[in-house]
Design a protein that fits this description.
By secondary structure, the protein is an all-alpha fold. It has helices at 2-18, 25-43, 46-55, 61-64, 69-83, 85-98, 103-112, 120-139, 145-159, 167-188, 195-211, 221-235, 240-253, 262-272, 275-280, 289-310, 349-353, 355-362, 390-406, and strands spanning 461-465, 468-472.
Length: 480
């Protein structure tokens, strides 16, 4: 609010001193534009400069080598809610599709039935739950009651998979949530991320990784990238289950797009993805280099050039997670760009009868209501439902959340992952030794390994996947 008053008062005081210029309206307009342009240049970097000054961060690692979790979260919240709210969300969206690059992950998703149900709202609810929990991990105060409930809810969900889920697949997802916003913002944003911003994202997710029970977590972001490359070389490859789950995700993202435009929207989404995703999901025939070029130019033109020079910084932060419960003690969540379903949104007059709601009504699309839990939900109740065991499960989540609230940095939660890793750890890694892999541990086969011949290149090839041949054609023509 102080920033709003400062800009507004300075702007109008300048206009008052100049006064009207009859007969020269175009000069008035030009002068107003120049004044506005001046304020954009002056305040565009205001948020990041304020954070750097507050914590003493600069371009040297030693200035942020002792960054705390609280400092890291403040840096990340500025990225996600002030400087790059849409690009941060889009970075997560692009990584969300990457989860099904590896058959070891897509097989679990397919078996759960959440993404291939005949009722599309089943998948929408699960996607909404995921987004609500993930944004809570980012912006709810670290170690608070709500933050701990979100972590405990995800851990309990992973426990339900029993011994079919490996810790390394969760660590692979942690890498995605870390690098997704970094890659997209640096590609399209009005500025590149500072090194301390990238470090903040990694430190936040490194701590979340051990609280999510990962049995091995690299210490540095560079080590994490090396580990990810090894995981991808071993586990990421084309498979029909990847395509099945990937198609379901695309359908959810295009849910509100008119039927006539869905084919074009699908090509646009696929063309925005990187070559590894297109290859692993066998979407090569739908990839359009021209569509990719056009979309990249438009996004870079708006988010890179236009916002940099002609848009003032946000005055109000984008709300990604609720700050307090409603009068019934339940939690309502804001509208997200993705997913496009109204779960947990309040049934306000605007949400139910505003212009966008009227368009959705005319198109037969869902609007907030009791059917979509407009009364709110509990953090521990989000996610897959387990019938008669639900109340016992929620009680266990609350108990685990109490432990997480009291935990110190590096605490590793106990999650029922498989006993051996897919990728041999480099060293002891980050976090407490409890529930970690022993240094002399072996590795296990995910059951989806491919022959060494199939890993030789990304050109035309026949891949051996669990003994079956999968033809992949034209990957070498896809440009990153």
């Amino acid at each position: 609010m102080a920033f709003k008053r400062e800009v507004s008062s300075a702007f109008f005081e300048t206009l008052a001193r100049v006064g009207p210029m009859p007969g020269f309206l175009w000069l008035d307009a030009l002068f107003i534009f120049l004044i506005y342009f001046y304020f954009v240049q002056k305040y565009r970097y205001r948020n990041i400069h304020a954070i750097a000054k507050k914590f003493g961060f600069n371009g040297y690692y030693r200035s942020y080598s002792q960054m705390t979790l609280e400092q890291a979260q403040e840096v990340v919240v500025n990225m996600a809610t002030q400087d790059f709210p849409w690009l941060f969300e889009f970075g997560w969206l692009a990584q969300f599709i990457k989860t099904v690059n590896a058959p070891v992950v897509s097989e679990l998703l397919d078996r759960s039935g959440h993404f291939n149900s005949k009722d599309p709202m089943v998948a929408h609810r699960r996607q909404q739950d995921t987004v609500c929990l993930m944004t809570g991990l980012m912006v709810q105060p670290f170690g608070s009651e709500i933050h701990s409930l979100a972590v405990a809810r995800i851990n309990e969900h992973h426990n339900q998979y029993g011994k079919s889920l490996n810790s390394d697949t969760t660590l692979y997802l942690v890498w995605m949530w870390t690098m997704g916003p970094i890659d997209v913002i640096n590609m399209f944003g009005w500025r590149k991320l500072e090194d301390f911003e990238k470090e903040a994202l990694w430190r936040l997710w490194r701590e979340l990784a051990v609280r999510l029970g990962c049995k091995y977590v690299p210490v540095t972001l560079d080590e994490m990238i090396i580990w990810k490359d090894r995981f991808a070389a071993q586990e990421v490859h084309p498979h029909p289950l990847n395509t099945k789950c990937g198609d379901s995700m695309l359908d959810m993202m295009l849910y509100k797009v008119p039927a006539l435009l869905k084919p074009l929207g699908r090509v646009a989404l696929i063309s925005m993805l990187d070559s590894e995703v297109v290859w692993a999901n066998m979407w090569m025939s739908e990839f359009s280099p021209w569509m990719r070029y056009i979309l990249f130019v438009c996004l870079k033109g708006y988010y890179g050039t236009f916002q940099r020079h002609f848009v003032l910084p946000r005055i109000w932060a984008r709300q990604l997670s609720p700050t307090k419960p409603n009068s019934a003690g339940l939690w309502n969540f804001p509208n997200y760009t993705y997913p496009s379903s109204p779960f947990y949104n309040r049934a306000t007059l605007w949400n139910s009868w505003g212009p966008f709601a009227l368009i959705d009504r005319l198109r037969g699309l869902p609007i907030p209501g009791l059917k979509y839990d407009s009364q709110g939900t509990r953090w521990e109740a989000m996610g897959a439902k387990y019938g008669q065991q639900q109340s016992r499960l929620e009680r266990r989540i609350r108990e685990q959340a109490e432990i997480l609230q009291k935990a110190k940095p590096g605490y590793r939660a106990a999650v029922k992952f498989q006993p051996l890793p897919l990728i041999k750890p480099f060293d002891a890694g980050y976090g407490t030794p409890e529930h970690a892999y022993p240094l002399d541990c072996g590795t296990m086969d995910s059951g989806f390994s491919v022959s060494a011949k199939s890993k030789a290149g990304l050109g035309d090839a026949t891949f051996l996947v669990n003994g079956a041949k999968v033809d992949v054609v034209g990957v070498k023509d896809i440009k990153a």
